Amino acid sequence: MKFKNILLLVFLLSFMHLNLIAQIDKVMVETYYISDTTDATDTTGGWLEAGSKTFRIYLDLAYGWKVKKIYGDTNHLLKFSSTQIFFNNISEGQTFAKDISKSRLEENTVALDTWLTLGAVTKIASKIVGVPKICDTNGSFIGGANNDGGSAVISYGLLTNADPLAGIPLTTSDGNDTLTLPSGSWFDYGILSSNSDDSTIFGSIVPDSVFECNDCGLQYSGIGGVNPDSNFVLLAQLTTKGDISFELNVELVDSTGAIIKYVANDSVLLGDEVLNRNLKYPFESVCGCPDSDYLEYLADRDCDNLDSCINLVVFGCMDPLACNYDSNANVNVSSLCCYPGLCNDRDLAFVCPELITTRMNEAFEIFPNPAQESLAVQLQKAAENSNYRIYNALGKLVLENEIRYGELNFPIDITNLEAGLYFIQLINGGTSFSKTFIKE
Fold first, then answer.
1. Quick one: CA dihedral 278, 269, 12, 334, positive or negative?
2. Structural element, H or E, at residue 78
3. How far is CA 429 from CA 57, 192, 403, 404, 406, in A?
4. Which of 51, 225, 304, 386 could form a disulfide with 403, with the two C-beta atoms 3.0–4.6 Å apart?
5. What predicted TM-score, i.e. pTM, was given to this entire model?
6. CATH code for 315-439?
């Protein structure tokens, strides 16, 4: 069982950083709508300048993960800003989309209000959540013939602009779908500027262009996407004529209750927090190593840079006090380290034969490590009656052969070995010594 645990640890060390990043596939900023002069005729909801853009911000999550909270804390700012003021509907606008009645989205420009959310677009009873318009296949209930026309009572309704820069028109797909949300209670703190009135960028009392806080949040029990595979979860809708920017911090939860926090800034990064640069917008293009076999591997990258792949990952014991200290290792696996009297239930004579026989640390070299198809062996000197044996991590002999006298360099075909951790033992002239290697 100890050897099985070692293999599991090696696997986790190899892929842990990838798994931590992979819960957020991407952050998507959708241009939801572009207002035109017809929309600007309405005064019921407050003047919406033609050319204003409505953006929706989505998290694209891995399967099974849900958003539990969007927040700002002492070390991580929650921020939304624009180069011009944000639009908020003065008649029916809300700070949080969960407080909007579905029927109100058919009135004037309510559907373009600026708000925060966790998935929901309306009150929970209506079961309406946001989805990217390209994923919306159930048509539209807002805009055009469904809209009341605003204060000017436009006969064909508002929200009819089909500007191609906003993608699918709202009259075709409104980016709203149905989903029964899990039971739970909403909780918010530090976002509303007072108990009942909101003068931040999410309220219409005092128009503003920046919202930022270090002690605020909106949370629910956990909300996933309509489609569990694509798993898009809406976090905010912002309407402005300016250029937007934001920094988000989110808390995710899976079906087992496991929680991961992702933050946009790593100036301070606590043990339960993981940096995701895509939570900061405009997105900063980051190129990195695409090969997980290298220490420099960057899972959270926007483009590949092969030149940044420099150091191959070499697992091993990096404690100089251990008898099997590996000077070539660059990823420490402490469970591999052996000491007299402490060797994780393994045979010390097998792991560190030099303690029992003659210390011959440099008697032979193996490369590459990790290896895929062939392992090259280089001897310092040859002796008669020499052979090698390869054991898997459970101590089972899986390969052996004789070494021809005088042969100092030879390859070993390991094609048929399964991926994992192995020990090669060399018996050279009656003296045995060993090394570990990884088969990929």
1. positive
2. strand 78-82
3. 69, 80, 11, 12, 12
4. 386
5. 0.65
6. 2.60.40.3080
How do residues 125-157 score in pLDDT, each as one tens digit? 999 999 999 999 999 999 999 999 999 999 999
Angle (CA) 58-59-64 rounded to 5° is 135
Q: Which amino acid is at 139?
A: G
Q: Burial of 101 by CB count in 10 Å (0-12 exposed, 13-18 middle, 19+ buried)? A: middle
Q: Closest by alpha carbon to 209, among 95, 96, 81, 89? A: 81
Continuous segment of H or E residues that includes residue 135? none
Q: How many CA atoms lie within 13 A of 175 on its CB side?
A: 29
Residue type, 349: A
Between the alpha carbon of residue 232 and those of residues 54, 218, 224, 365, the distances in Å are 18, 18, 7, 51
Nearest Cα residue to 312 out of 17, 6, 14: 14
* CA dihedral angle for residue 29, residue 32, residue 35, residue 38, rounded to 10 degrees: 180
Residues of the chain above pLDDT 70, percent:
89
* Per-residue pLDDT tens digits for 261-289: 999 998 899 988 999 989 999 987 788 99
Map tokens 């045979």 to a residue: 347
Query: What's the mean pLDDT in 298-317?
Result: 88
321, pLDDT greater than 60: yes
- Specify the amino acid at residue 111: A
Encode pLDDT of 10-48 as tens digits. Answer: 333 333 333 444 699 889 999 999 999 999 999 999 989
